[in-house]
Amino acid sequence: RGIISYGAYLPHRRLDRSTIAAVAGTGGGKGTRTVASYDEDPTTMAAAAARGLGAVSADMLLFATANPAYADKTNATAIHAVLPLDSTVPAVDLGASARSTLGGLLLGGRSLAGRC
């Protein structure tokens, strides 16, 4: 089946790029960019994106980020907990690098029929 759904979440706060040069001395540019609040880490943003999917059934939950909120415990189980998934659906963290994120996309795009 491959990837059957995905969600996205963008923080509500915005930073005017022109104010960056005033602080950093250079850079900035035009327009605005999203900025995470103090309590918006990759795990909470992924959970918010997952909640927006509505009713979903899945064979596996893969969570990949280069900056995990927790290094000593799994982030994927926190996301699994907010979804109405069966307890037998595995939740897997994929490393802490951009390369592991790409690996997760490739893994999710394959048929999971022959998985262990």
Entry keywords:
116 residues, alpha+beta, two-stranded antiparallel ribbon, two-stranded parallel sheet, 4 helices, elongated
Overview of this structure, please?
This protein has 116 residues and is of the alpha+beta class. 31% of the residues lie in helices and 12% in strands. The protein is built from 4 helices and 4 strands. It has helices spanning 18-24, 42-51, 76-82, 98-109; strands at residues 14-16, 32-34, 61-64, 91-94. The strands form 2 sheets. It has a two-stranded antiparallel ribbon. Helix 2 (42-51) packs parallel to helix 3 (76-82). The longest helix is centred in the C-terminal third of the chain and has 12 residues, at 98-109.
How are the secondary structure elements laid out?
Layout: E1 14-16, H1 18-24, E2 32-34, H2 42-51, E3 61-64, H3 76-82, E4 91-94, H4 98-109
Parallel strand pairs: 3-4
Antiparallel strand pairs: 1-2
Please state the structural category: alpha+beta
Name the helix and strand elements from N-terminus to C-terminus, one letter apiece. Answer: EHEHEHEH
Number of helices: 4
Main beta sheet strand tally, sense and closure = 2 strands, antiparallel
Strand proportion, as a percent range, falls in 5-15%
Uncertain parts = 111-116
Distance between the termini: 16 Å
The strand line-up of the biggest sheet is 1-2
Please bin the fraction of helical residues. 25-40%
Question: What's the Cα radius of gyration?
Answer: 17 Å
What is the residue-averaged pLDDT?
81
Strand elements, count: 4
The shape, in one word, is elongated
Which oligomeric state applies?
single chain
